[in-house]
Amino acid sequence: MTRKKVKHVYIADVTARKATFKKRKKGIIKKVNELTILCGIQACALIASPFDSKIEVWPDSEGTRHIIERYQSTSIIDRSKNVSQESFIVHRVAKAQDQVKKKHRENREKEVTLTIFQYLKSGIIPQQLNFEELKDLERLIEKNIKQVESRIEELS
Amino acid sequence: MTRKKVKHVYIADVTARKATFKKRKKGIIKKVNELTILCGIQACALIASPFDSKIEVWPDSEGTRHIIERYQSTSIIDRSKNVSQESFIVHRVAKAQDQVKKKHRENREKEVTLTIFQYLKSGIIPQQLNFEELKDLERLIEKNIKQVESRIEELS
DNA sequence: ACATCTATCTTTAGTCT
DNA sequence: TAGACTAAAGATAGATG
Known about the structure:
By secondary structure, chain A is mainly alpha-helical.
């Protein structure tokens, strides 16, 4: 009587879709939970609801945040294979500091680099950035500084 | 012959753990994929490997990034229930701009706020921040500005 | 709408190659 | 180390209350 051949296509019927979503979400979360226990690992799932804009996560928001941060760090490292992220950052900062000492003058380029360094240390932006990302960030900070300066000028 | 009662505890044997991890990870990803199709939603899974530091994600890094960003936005909204995030940001920026025009002088407080606004617009930091997070960010930016200024002074 | 049931489908632990 | 196999365990579609 209970026929089942799940066609893997979008479920048009709202009631059926909602029921399936609820059951399967529960199943997935159970499986993810089991995997973390059986294998002693971290894992998380983020699932958007079809019925409201909320995204459900497993485990709690704290655990999810941790693994997301861990993922973001490592994925960025992977993207910049050509240079070790650690030596890259260390070298960049050391170079910026040297330049500051040598040139002995106000220099926006170094201001930007130092700002980036502070943000990296603080964790506001990922601890590792590849060259392209760093360049984007530099351009953004430079733009900000210019805007702030022009606004200040405008008011003087 | 094939006896199975899965005890839900850590699998001590390395070989068995690896085999189970591989099988179950595949299963979870399949289930998540099916859920997204059946219900027409976004979902992702992040799974740390027990054998190297890499975190595997489903779907690709691009899709994962999107849903993470969506999650981070909404979760932060939820945390600052007391005030709508949109009106909060809009109000804060408008106020800062008003102050700039009225006081007609260089003012670090506004510089900080404008910098935050730029970062918010750019997506470098989450689009929504609650009061505590905004305060932390303000303190950080202020500290950065002071450090940069003192370094510039030191060199003049 | 939700809870329970259960026949059937799907996953997977243990085993072998 | 990685597939393939298979029977038991587990998940769930559709039905019913």
